[in-house]
Amino acid sequence: MKKLYYSIGEVSEISGVDAHVLRYWESVFDELSPKKNKAGNRTYKEQDIETILKLKELIQEKKYSTEGAQQVLQQEAESGNSTEDVPVSLKKDLKEMRVFLKRLLEKL
């Protein structure tokens, strides 16, 4: 389900990345800067989730250091090309669908 804004809990569930890790990545990566609402809660957009999924792939799956992940993100931004086989936006949509189906199964 597409939304304009996601809470840190929703992003954590979609991405499989703990909230404290998301807050840490926010302090390290300039590409990840969710806005805060009036209550001070982080509000993530689609692009933020795509960045988080890319970071998760680089850091947790491919075992890049944070510095190495920063370099990859900068190179992709400069060249405008992604090195991925499957677009991050598609991965995000599939993960959202998985969360939705999991919740639906729990209700049955």
Automatic annotation (TrEMBL):
Domain HTH merR-type, residue spans: 5-75
SUPFAM superfamilies referenced in this protein's UniProt entry, alphabetically: Putative DNA-binding domain (SSF46955)
Gene3D superfamilies named in the record: 1.10.1660.10
Classification via InterPro entries: DNA-bd_dom_put_sf, MerR-type_HTH_dom, MerR_fam
Record key words, sorted: DNA-binding
Top-rank lineage group of the source organism: Bacteria
Classification via CDD domains: HTH_MlrA-like_sg2 (cd04765)
Name by which UniProt lists this protein: MerR family transcriptional regulator
Source species: Fodinibius salsisoli
